[in-house]
Amino acid sequence: MSSRGTVHASGAVARSGALALVGAVVSALMGFAFTITLGRTLGPAGAGVVLQAVAAFTIALAVGRFGLDTTAVWLLPRLADENPARLRAGLTGLLLPALGLGVVAGLGLAAIAATYPPQQRELTLALWGMAGFLPLAAVMTVGLSATRGLGGVRPFVLINSIAVPTARPALVLAITALGLGSVAVAISWVAPTVLAVVVTLWLLRRRVRRAERRAGDPPVDAWPDRGLVRRIRGYALPRSVSTVLEQGLLWLDVVLVGVLAGQAAAGVYGTASRLVAAGLVLSTALRIVVAPQYSRSLGRGDVPAAQRLYTMTTSWIVLGSLPVPILFSLFGGTWLGLFGPGFQDGSLALGLLCVGLAGVLLAGNIQSMLLMSGRSGWVAVNKGLALLVTLGLLVILVPWLGIEGAAIAWSVGALVDTGLATWQVQRLIGVTVAGSDVGVAVLVATVGFGLPALVSRLLLGDTWTALLIGTVVGGAVWAGASAWLRERLHLHGVLMMVQRRRSEGEDH
Fold first, then answer.
1. Which residues lie below 8 Å from residue 352, measured CB to CB, with a gap of 6+?
2. C-alpha–C-alpha distance, residues 399 and 211, integer Å
3. pLDDT confidence of 216, banded at 50, 70, 90?
4. What is the pLDDT, as a whole number, of residue 69?
5. Helices 376-401 and 226-261 sit at what angle, rounded to 10 degrees?
6. Which distant-in-sequence residues (6+ apart) come within 8 Å of 229 by Cβ?
7. Nearest residue to 101 via CA among 141, 128, 129
8. Which DSSP state fits 131?
9. Is the per-residue pLDDT at 474 higher than 90?
């Protein structure tokens, strides 16, 4: 591809990713606000109940959606290219199973909650209340992914990344103001799903009609034939396994910490683990945009295009995201102090979690690349091995080291999962993960930003003053180095987006 073509491609991704990035930032901030509100209103023990309930619900939702959300992102762009008249049939084959499996997952969650011991009565009641929302949450998740597969990220971002997360901290404040406790707060976390699923289905219906009009092909049938069902099932089945395992990797540590170390420990550890999720904001935003593009490029056999897109976005992810684990590692006590008394005990665990986070960031959207190549079975194997490693380490280390042991277990599991996917993408697809451009991004983030932050921490300690000085000085060096190396970092696409938006604003 010529340099002009590369600039055009990067500009397109940057423009498409702008709204997704805004949504990811809002989602992270609202998640942060939700966790702060939990800690301040319910304390470590009450927050532990809510976070364990959220963890269990999220794992059950992975069962309910059965990998159909990722299947929608993979399948619908290909159907739109091959035969747009089959889009409705494809959606039927995606949404109806999600509804049915959501019911099954909800019943399973309620049954498992009934086995909890009496001392975890609040958690049992919370899970019983949340289980009824699982079918709606499954349909909403698959439906929003279908809108991505049909082109554009606006519905996904506005509903999943902005509206629902924004409602959650507000509901916590309202519920605790009424004198209600952790059970009601946990149920409020899933309550926004009711309205969200209605809006999602309405928007999805409009998108399908628009795609059909654009193609000029009337729908042949709203029900999938056997071939399409096999195609959906063939991709979704291994993906469903990997999705459950993936959510297990993300959330099972919180549940096991509650079982092995108590509700208060789960509250502190769960809070630290939610902070780590802030480091994935940019990666998540770009994944929303690039996954359908990976699917199209690899579906056409255009591996070089997928390579260019991967290298470009990985440079952005490393450059923009590595400062987050650096700040959390150096100033963990300061950050956790925001959540109230007792949460600063998790500062060392937060630093250990950031080791795993950094490893995940260095690989960029490697999981999306492997998934969109159609190799969902390999992803399932990777997640299974990583989960086995994580579970084994959790059982061994948590009784011995407490929440620090849980952090070590999670980081090792994350690195195993990422390492396997990286090796497979190189061997099976032919996309090279390591590259000089990504190395430049690593240097700018770690030396340009990290070194001033480290000096500030050593001189002034784990304080807000040190955090602010380190961030300002490190940010200035980071920004200057990024501007100087903008070609190597592929930042011309971002600059084009800004310039185009300014010119559009002047024209209007």
1. 404, 407, 408, 411
2. 55
3. low
4. 85
5. 10
6. 93
7. 141
8. H
9. yes
Beta strand spans in 138-210 (E)? none
Burial 304-335 (b: 16+ CB within 10 A, else e): ebbbbbbbbbbbbbbbbbbbbbbbbbbbbbbb
DSSP codes, 3-61: HHHHHHHHHHHHHHHHHHHHHHHHHHHHHHHHHHHHHHHHHHHHHHHHHHHHHHHHHHH
Q: Return the pLDDT at 9.
A: 47
Q: Compute the C-alpha angle 59/64/67, nearest 5°.
A: 90
Q: How confident is the model at residue 493 (pLDDT cuts 50, 70, 90)?
A: low
Among residues 241, 244, 269, 189, the alpha carbon closest in space to that of 59 is found at: 244
Distance from the Cα of residue 434 to its chain's centroid: 23
The residue count of the chain comes to 508
**Chain position carrying tokens 């939610």:** 274
DSSP string for residues in 148-166: HHTS-SHHIIIIIIIIHHH
* Per-residue confidence band for 504, with pLDDT thresholds at 50, 70 and 90: very low
Are 247 and 109 in contact, with CB atoms under 8 Å apart? no
| 145: its two tokens | 């992914």
Instruction: Kindly indicate the confidence band of residue 136, based on its pLDDT and cuts at 50, 70 and 90.
Output: very high
Mapping DSSP to helix (H, G, I), strand (E, B) and coil, where does residue 423 land? helix
Phi/psi at 26 (5° precision): -60, -45
Contacts of 349 (CB under 8 A, 6+ apart): 268, 269, 272, 403, 404, 406, 407
pLDDT in tens, 336-382: 998 888 888 999 999 999 999 999 999 988 888 888 887 777 888 88
Greater confidence (192 vs 80) lies with: 192
User: Binning pLDDT at 50, 70 and 90, where does residue 134 land?
Assistant: very high
The mean pLDDT of 49-57, rounded to a whole number, is 91
In contact, 428 and 375? CB cutoff 8 Å: yes
Residue 217, SS3? coil
Close Cβ partners of 135 (under 8 Å, ≥ 6 residues apart) = 64, 99, 102, 103, 106
Please check the confidence at residue 6 and state whether its pLDDT lies above 50: no
CB 383, CB 350: distance < 8 Å: no
d(CA 152, CA 142): 15
pLDDT at residue 290, as a whole number: 76
